Amino acid sequence: MADVARLAGVSSQTVSRVSTGHPGVVESTRQQVLAAMRQLGYRPNSAARALKRGEFRTLGVILFTLATTGNSRTVEAIAGYAAKEGYAITLIPVAAPTQDGVLGAFSRLGELAVDGIIVIMEVHLLDAANLNLPPGVQVVVVDSDAGDRYPVVDTDQADGARQAVRHLLELGHETVWHVTGPAESFASERRTQAWRRTLLEAGRAVPPVQRGDWTADSGYRAGLALAAEPECTAVFAANDQMALGLLRAFHERGRTVPGDVSIVGFDDIPDSSSFIPPLTTVHQDFAEVGRRCVQGLLRQIRNEPEGPGTVLVPTRMVVRASTAPPGSRRG
Amino acid sequence: MADVARLAGVSSQTVSRVSTGHPGVVESTRQQVLAAMRQLGYRPNSAARALKRGEFRTLGVILFTLATTGNSRTVEAIAGYAAKEGYAITLIPVAAPTQDGVLGAFSRLGELAVDGIIVIMEVHLLDAANLNLPPGVQVVVVDSDAGDRYPVVDTDQADGARQAVRHLLELGHETVWHVTGPAESFASERRTQAWRRTLLEAGRAVPPVQRGDWTADSGYRAGLALAAEPECTAVFAANDQMALGLLRAFHERGRTVPGDVSIVGFDDIPDSSSFIPPLTTVHQDFAEVGRRCVQGLLRQIRNEPEGPGTVLVPTRMVVRASTAPPGSRRG
DNA sequence: CTCCCGGATGTTTGCGTTAACATCACGCTC
DNA sequence: GAGCGTGATGTTAACGCAAACATCCGGGAG
């Protein structure tokens, strides 16, 4: 910076004013400084800037994996909105969804240059890690029920599941079977609860739950079990990938979809419109979730406190070709 | 830090020594300092640290989207290995795959606190953005052919495509049709080149290319066109999602897979084993790509220069149920 | 007993930036 | 024409930390 100042024949403070876009610099001076910057390849040192300002303009995102559609899409949206607000995103991967893994991530966190953190995981794992968040670092949580302790942003899992079940009931199915996700996922639990409640409210029987782990393979295994239940005519899968597995299992067992069995998924991943048949599913607005996360976190950082509470992003049914009235097998 | 020093009854330098793990601090003193740190919730200011050390311990990853399996898996691997080396990852999303978008990302880059950058995109887009990388910032590129200017790490696209085509030829197919990805993708172009060359080397006819855009939908449209070609018995899709679309198109047109038509994909996404039928595909080792990226970049940062050059990560065929000899339709 | 040496700890300084204050020149008013 | 205000620019200091150097202490050699 001193070099730039010297070359431009001004003081370093004037260089600073130019590079931060402060007013009160005459145009001719400004151009000289800009020229000197270019010539010397000057680039402000963000560490020094952060040191002086006391903030990093960076948000941390802590999560287990980018392998699920939901996580990667949410992170992408977060990164986009954060960039728009002048914030960068630092990824903090947790090695494994265990206490040790979380602990490791949070110890690294202490060293990190972030102004706030978005946590994408069930919050009881944080508790297990006897969460001592660095003071001054704000938090927003996704996929959790910690609405009484931290601000939470999430898809309206319950309403989404309710819509899925209602859709199947309205088509005339007696009841709806369910393939759930892993027990440690809050989203999965919420969807299962809502499925059960919706059936109960409609006075229907609640069939036993098939447990999966989000993967298509686990959906396939669940589908094999379900195909052996002759009275199973409608299934609500907790995500699209497990629905894909169901589709294959029913196909292999000669149970046509939607003729013999109707299937609804959750997420509306891009591929789901190309399943065989195209999948009826519950659309999640990951971009909106990301946006609300960043918005909430920045509001905290800027000291416009909101306190704990939950923001629910609505879902909507996307009806494609995997659902039909029961017993509508063609031919 | 001064507060901690006061509370522990030592100088701030001793606190610094403790927090950086320097030797030459007697155990009893160390414990006192540690206790004071805990009591005050002290956390070293990484901006100041970075300022003093002249490095940020952060790597930037610049890419268009996390929506493709390859990108998100690669980023995940990068983040994991970087963490292991004590580096954090900053995500730099590019709004759109246009010159403007890239330009915007690189202007933001100037402000960013990174020691090196991993670029996941075709490098000619960088050129378009008249790339003036901040001096002192190292670069590694993925999905590009810039091996003469930057170090490049990539999947061995050509060999993967060759394996796919050979597999189909060895099953007895006369030739292999191809659904390619978007023209601006280097990976896609490489796969297409290798497909063509392999056919030529085997003295086979080279059918016209169907162009897709990586999405299952585009694969579906290509599949519709291909289903109308009676002599088409084998298709190599440039990724698994387009293969999924092909599967649906052929299914809807009553062309059985693999009885009437064999299909090979590329990527080996987790879902591909649950397609109908389970997909034969080329497995990419994204984790290895990520590891090599980080390794190469850190080597540059640590001044163990390697210069430009290309690291190719091998692929392997995963044979499932979507390929068979031609005309093997059951029944 | 003195001197010296080495290990433990303290003091000083500067990393690059910007806020706050100081200065300076110019033009306007009375 | 003296005084004053305004806007442009310069000077100083501090952000938190750690490298370099300074100091202090105790113990062993002579």
TrEMBL record, chains A, B:
Q: Which UniProt keywords apply?
A: DNA-binding, Transcription, Transcription regulation
Put simply, this protein is called: LacI family transcriptional regulator
InterPro entries in UniProt: HTH_LacI (IPR000843), LacI/GalR-like_sensor (IPR046335), Lambda_DNA-bd_dom_sf (IPR010982), Peripla_BP_I (IPR028082)
- SUPFAM superfamilies documented for this protein: lambda repressor-like DNA-binding domains (SSF47413), Periplasmic binding protein-like I (SSF53822)
Q: Show the taxonomic lineage.
A: Bacteria, Bacillati, Actinomycetota, Actinomycetes, Micromonosporales
Pinpoint the HTH lacI-type domain residues: 1-53
Q: Which PANTHER family match?
A: LACI-RELATED TRANSCRIPTIONAL REPRESSOR, LACTOSE OPERON REPRESSOR
Q: Which residues form a coiled coil?
A: none
What GO molecular functions are on record for this protein? DNA-binding transcription factor activity; transcription cis-regulatory region binding
PROSITE patterns this protein is in?
HTH_LACI_2 (PS50932)
Query: Do you know which CDD domains this protein is assigned to?
Result: HTH_LacI, PBP1_LacI
